[in-house]
Specification:
254 residues, alpha+beta, six-stranded antiparallel sheet
Length: 254
């Protein structure tokens, strides 16, 4: 009897099995290596200690995204990330695709969310009131700010409720929702006459430009005031936020 030759589909099946096994091994390797690389880069970029928690998750197939030239569906969460001196926020960054060499490629579908706890709201209050308010907290979806002013020769505590929203790229809309002067029944016009233009940021609707305080590659998309007393700032990131130095320079309100 002649020796039986393997059929073509048997050989093909063997090749497919080998490819699947190699792909599986590559997938595991990528998922083991990539998160550690991202964690290290995040800690270095933010000036964090080696033990600062950085959570990294990869969605979809790491191998298929590797064929696209990068890492896909990446979410990086950093609690207590330093923003400016003395201020920290819980930062979450997501990208649909990050090239293996971000310095030479473009990031796709990138966004960032910053949650600022009530204890860290000082700079946010300072920004939206142009330095007028001395105190601030989130109450019932509004930002309630306060300061003491001299009226009729006496210091009077003033409290103002403000609505805050993104009006456009690099602009914040401020909507006054009520002002209370302790022990006094005064209208906004009366307060303006008594305090001059000092209280205008608390009494008059306005749109503030903050482009000069943001990198050009960052576009504000939302500000959410939570019932827990925190504020969350959301923004989209330009594809060249890493590779293009100009995208990381502050914009202009001119």
């Amino acid at each position: 009897m002649s020796e039986r030759k393997p059929r073509w589909w048997t050989r093909l099946l063997g090749v497919l099995i080998a490819v699947v096994l190699l792909a599986g091994a590559a997938e595991v390797a990528l998922r083991l290596i990539v998160p550690d690389t991202i964690r290290s880069a995040a800690r270095v970029g933010l000036g964090l200690t080696a033990d600062h928690p950085v959570e990294v998750s990869l969605g979809g197939s790491a191998l298929l995204n590797a064929f696209r030239g990068g890492v896909g569906d990446v979410t990086v969460t950093v609690p207590d990330a330093p923003l400016i001196e003395g201020v920290k926020a819980d930062a979450t960054v997501h990208a649909a695709l990050v090239p293996f060499n971000p310095m030479a490629g473009e990031i796709r579908g990138a966004s960032v969310s910053l949650r600022v706890d009530r204890e860290q709201l000082g700079p946010v209050v300072n920004l939206v009131t142009q330095g007028v308010a001395q105190t601030g907290e989130v109450q019932d979806g509004s930002l309630v700010v306060g300061r003491s002013i001299d009226l009729f020769g006496q210091p009077v505590p003033l409290s103002a409720k403000l609505g805050v929203a993104v009006a456009g790229a690099g602009e914040i809309e401020i909507e006054p929702r009520g002002v209370t002067a302790a022990g006094l029944d005064l209208s906004a016009d009366q307060l303006t006459q008594a305090a001059g233009g000092l209280l205008d940021p608390l009494l008059r609707p306005q749109v503030l430009c903050v482009r000069d305080q943001l990198p050009r590659g960052v576009e504000l998309t939302g500000i959410t005031l939570s019932s827990t007393g925190s504020a969350t700032i959301s923004a989209d990131l330009a594809p060249g936020i890493v590779s293009d130095e100009q995208q990381r320079e502050n914009g202009s309100c001119a």
